[in-house]
Design a protein that fits this description.
single chain, alpha+beta, Nuclear Transport Factor 2, Chain: A, 4-stranded antiparallel β-sheet, 8 strands
Length: 293
């Protein structure tokens, strides 16, 4: 019976982990929480700019901003960034709002524009093309008397070589594979400790010890592309390892924590096994065996 319960618990934990990975990834969270009106306006502005639809741009940009933006030499080179290949996908990379009145006033003064709203919205989109290249497009928007308008736009090309440089099997990764081997040993040690904790008889607060065994402190991060390692010592995590990559054009980061919880379990288990030495007889007192005779 205990084995069947253990198998069901592991299946439930695996299902929960798959749900978290599939439904709560960084990309999914960004796309679900992004303001739909701002994203729609950003995509429409990019399409109008590519089509040189001046009339539509003047309607969507803030008053007096369309000509300032489109006549800017840096912005005019925006069209050159777009490859001629067909757009295969558009992803929301990031978005955020700035609500502090001081920042809005300073930005308005820098733009030489009047902003009626106290909130500015930034949206960054990633356009992917059939040839493998991509383009990051960032737009700045604010509400102008109830209507969302564009105040600025910028673009950064992402060549296909970035995907090759950030690939998992890119050459020159000997140190990275050593880091990955350490993670495998760390995970194996935590799994063995969890099984030992579950099978320990008469262990008080066993569920609490299971959580303690799974947890760790001291987070080590590795940039898989560059090999840079970063340490965050004051970190406590329930999951012993993980990985994150915002897009194929950005580096993969993997991390693990020191298995301090598993080490604490084995120390506790060793102390439980240590037999207690019998009390020595007092001076002048005969041992218990002699008293029986």
């Amino acid at each position: 019976m205990p084995g069947g319960i253990m198998r069901r618990l592991f299946r439930a934990a695996a299902a929960a982990a798959l749900f978290v990975v599939a439904g709560c990834s960084q990309q999914t969270v960004v796309e679900r929480t992004a303001p739909k009106d701002a994203v729609a306006l950003a995509e429409k502005t990019v399409s109008d700019f590519r089509a040189q639809d001046t009339a539509s741009l003047e309607r969507d940009f803030a008053p007096g901003r369309a000509q300032v933006v489109t006549d800017n030499p840096m912005v005019r080179s925006f069209l050159r960034y777009f490859p001629k290949e067909q757009v295969t996908a558009v992803h929301i990379v990031a978005w955020h709002n700035v609500s502090r009145v001081g920042n809005v006033e300073n930005l308005a003064r820098w733009w030489n524009a009047n902003i009626a709203s106290n909130t500015i919205t930034y949206v960054t989109l990633r356009y992917e093309f059939r040839g493998g290249d991509a383009l990051l497009v960032s737009l700045t928007m604010a509400s102008d008397f109830g209507r969302l308008r564009v105040y600025g736009m910028d673009a950064v090309p992402l060549p296909r070589s970035l995907i090759q440089a950030n690939a998992f099997d890119a050459p020159g990764k000997s140190g990275q594979y050593l880091f990955l081997l350490i993670i495998l040993f760390d995970v194996a040690f935590v799994i063995v400790s969890l099984v030992a904790c579950w099978q320990t008889p008469q262990l008080r607060l066993k569920w609490l010890w299971l959580f303690v065994t799974l947890s760790g402190t001291g987070e080590f991060w590795l940039n898989w592309t560059t090999g840079d390692v970063r340490l965050a010592p004051l970190v406590l995590k329930l999951i012993p390892f993980g990985a994150a990559q915002a897009s194929p054009y950005q580096p993969l980061s993997i991390w693990f924590v020191l298995p301090t919880g598993a080490i604490a379990f084995w120390i506790m288990k060793t102390l439980r096994r240590t037999p207690t030495a019998p009390d020595a007889p007092a001076a002048g007192e005969a041992p218990a065996s002699d008293m029986k005779d």
